Request: fold
Amino acid sequence: MPESKSSFVITMNKFHANGKFLLSGEYLVLQGAKALALPLKLGQSLEVKTVNIQSGMVHWDAYTPKGFWFASIFSKYGFTVHASDDMQKADTLCKIFSEIKSLNPNILQGQDDYFFTTRLEFDKDWGMGSSSTLISLLAQWAGVDPYELLRRTMGGSGYDIACATASKPLTYRLADSIPLVEEVDFNPSFAQNLYFVYQGHKQNSGKEVKSFKERAQKEKFSDEIHEISEISDALIKTDSFDVFCALLIRHETIMSHCLEQLPLKASFPDFQGTVKSLGAWGGDFFLAATELPEKEVFSYFNIKGLKTVLKYDEIVL
Reply:
């Protein structure tokens, strides 16, 4: 939004957060399973300016790779929306800022207006972490605990928060609700055989998580949690493509039982390779592992109507 000619920038800060893929441990990470997560080269950036307009407002402009996304103006005192072209998103922002203020009362002090500009580096429908990168960015700016901010707002296991500021792949586990994060050397020698394929629609992970938690209250899945944790460790250690694929298949079988859903392979029975869901089942991206030539991989999924196929080395940090 344009600034008046008489105003001037007092400070300007920039922040960045990585997107994410969850390679193993989906759903059961909520119950304490060890998950293997991949921070991505694509993420979201935040630029914050303070300007001496002195109207007591927060000005928010959001962009995606396709251009302008939405804008909002809200009070920095009561966090009430004054104008927006998307009231639902504006209300969500106000709730996040309200929680940030309770965690750090020193933010948004003084008479200056604040101008926030976010730039998403991936399609907003891809499920790579538009929400988690936002939480991380605002936590970085405000100097608050991102996991606590996540808990008070979006909810979830927090693995995506760990990915947001990681420099390489990591394992993630919750122990008594405390995140245990360890960056690991996961550099598969067969990376050229790994692809990420977008299923064409964004999954509502919040709804999926709630549904699974209700089911997990009845079934503790202790054996499954243990085996999934072992699979996460084995995926890191193996240098064999065949073993890697066997581990993915076993993982799908376990989660198919837990979720009472068919494995993803049932949707691609003729695919010469292994496919594995990433994150919430039924949407977003999945992993395809195959020794088919790259051209044939793209052709196969394109014929199925899946036009977005990303190579592992292109996207994983």
About this structure: Residues 191-315 form a domain with the Alpha-Beta Plaits fold (CATH 3.30.70.890). The longest helix spans residues 241-259. The first strand starts at residue 9 and ends at 24.
